[in-house]
Amino acid sequence: MDIISLTKKQLREALDLNTYWQNKEVVMPKSKARWLLKNERIEEDDYVAIIGLENTQIIGYTLIVPDIIQTKDHKTCKIHWIHIWCVDKNCKDGILGPYIFNKTIKILNQQVLLNSYQENTNKFFDKGPFEIINKRLRYTVFFNLEPDIIISKFPIFKYVDWLIVLCNKTIVKSVNYLNQKKLKKITAHLTYEYLNELDEETWEFLSKRCQNDFTVKTKSVINWHIDNSQYTQTPISKKFKFSYYSTGFSENIYSYTLKILEDTALIGFISYVVNGMEFNLKYFICKDNTYGEKCMAALMEHFFKSKASYIITDDTKLVQQIKNQYKPVFTYQIEKKTIAHKNMGLNFEDVLVTDRDGRFH
Hints:
With 361 residues, the protein is an alpha+beta fold. It has 10 helices and 16 strands.
């Protein structure tokens, strides 16, 4: 087996030569790879992936995103998010996974953060030199009953899947009609300006409200976050050549970004990704609390227009407001953790990690 440490410069060369896109299993879509190259925060000699190869087959890898964070004592530091840590299913019980991960830690000089990870790796991190620096809840707010998702979370419903379909066509449809009727009254005097990248007015609005974010925001970084070129549409997915463990491809995946205007005043900013039935929130920022209801109504108007079934967000305050104002079918929540290597030498006291910090979905 060969272990390849891939820098930004080497990733660019690999794309030109199609080096890691010869077989079915690949690290990431080419669109995500090209998107990484656009990030001005990532230098040419920064590592972006560690890949395990066996006879040209990718059998394991970590996907890395260099970033800049700030702590409560206003110290900034360049770190590396391990965005994905993945091993071929045939090698999960061996030493390959820990070997690639430990190799990644060493190459990155222990300046490493993970924003969330699979529950089956808890024991690995509990035994290692890591500390939890943030805990939060990730919410999935359902406004439609997707049988496959419901059954995966609650297997008992597989015996009455017909009941789920019936509820969707009757009760759920009626409730969502009332939800949409309610929000139309609130958004009647709002208008939206859709963006591909930030203008100066929007950046000035965001810079004031993101200045204390865990990850340091700049105009170019936010433009990179919302860049729609990172996604690959696969209309006939069953004939799509590649298979990924990472996000970034789907039959229907697209990023939307907008300004919320009341008359001519900018009162809010929203960015989200629609991926099939999933509405994944990236940014939800209001001018201040007095505009919360209007901005939330704008969000919900776009959600219902998207025909998605559920919203995913870490924003507890927003979820509580949605549940109070509208009537979701139910809300599923799971605890997510951000962990750091203990040798980073930074003060992570009272760190707040939000939807817009270290998530690259």
